[in-house]
Design goal:
Layout lengths: L18 H17 L8 H23 L7 H12 L6 H14 L14 H6 L1 H10 L10 H21 L4 H25 L1 H27 L10 H4 L2 E3 L2 H6 L6 H6 L8 H11 L6 E3 H10 L3 E4 L2 E4 L4 E4 L24 H4 L2 H5 L3
Parallel strand pairs: 1-2
Antiparallel strand pairs: 3-4, 4-5
Amino acid sequence: MRPTLPDAVFAPATSRVLWLPVHVAIIAGCAWALATGQVPAPLWPVLSIVIGICFSGVTFLAHETLHGGVVRGRFAIRVIGWIGLLPFTVSPQLWVAWHNRVHHNHTGKQGVDPDMYPTMEEYRTQRAARIMADHFGIGRQRLLGFASMLFGYTGQSTQMLFTARKRGFLTPNLHRRAIAESALGWAFWAAVAIAVGFVPFIFVYLLPLVVANTIVMAFIMTNHNLSPLTDVNDPLVNSLSVTLPRPLEWLTLNFGYHTEHHLFPTASTRHGAAIRDAILARYPERYQTLPLGTALGQLYGTARVYADHTTLIDPPSGKTWPTLVPRPRTAATPMVMSAVSSSSETANERTSPQAAQGVA
């Protein structure tokens, strides 16, 4: 597929760096307004939401940068990555090991991919897996499960930081470096708390962090947690792309083009639509996409334990649901030889929820 794509798809999208000063300026301006009482108290939550959106924006930028899709040069990548992940105080060293190396190389693999939910065997034998699935995992029409949206990325990244050496993600030296990078972030936010005061800090950082967690987790959970476990790392099987109105896709740096991202991790998601069209030109029946709201609804209505590779199960009730699977090719399914234009398509036209699921 790569030879069919323009060279520009694989060149660094250096202009993306401009998002960083824009987001930082907005965050700083809102923080100053909150700390100095420049806005009335009823508007403080509004500014918190704005800061939270910017937090998620710099996180998406850091993700793309640490994959090499924005700039070249290790120092520049690490600096932008650290600043971008600062809202969550995630170490770039940890992120590259956990996400780039382990998650991307073993996506959907049982017991290896750190971002997948447990199997029934793990549920039965691991107390932590049972607690997460029964009380905090989104699904089973349980409102408490949305706690994993509000705090999930913060919780998972903290857990990964302190277990990275045990999991074999980082050597002792690199683990110490990762802790130091995160500690520098903790010190930064402690200094901000001292500078602005306790109550403003709630609106400058804590509430925005909840907003950012919710936005980021909405993508993270829909990217893979409706998909099957896979022994072979096939992004057309174990990944789901999600769609939003175009202005929101622009604001979130096209992060919803996730199947495309797993096929070409070092390409900027600015080119997600071009990669999607290349997929549709060759594998129209295998490409899986849903509107983000639909995917979240399916997360809410299903369960987060795997009975087998393609079946989700609610252990207490025994109720099961199929994971998303690509449609099988039939004789009636043509091999499309030209890119599919998306200028006037809606998300539902690209792939219906039923088609994405592979079930009626």
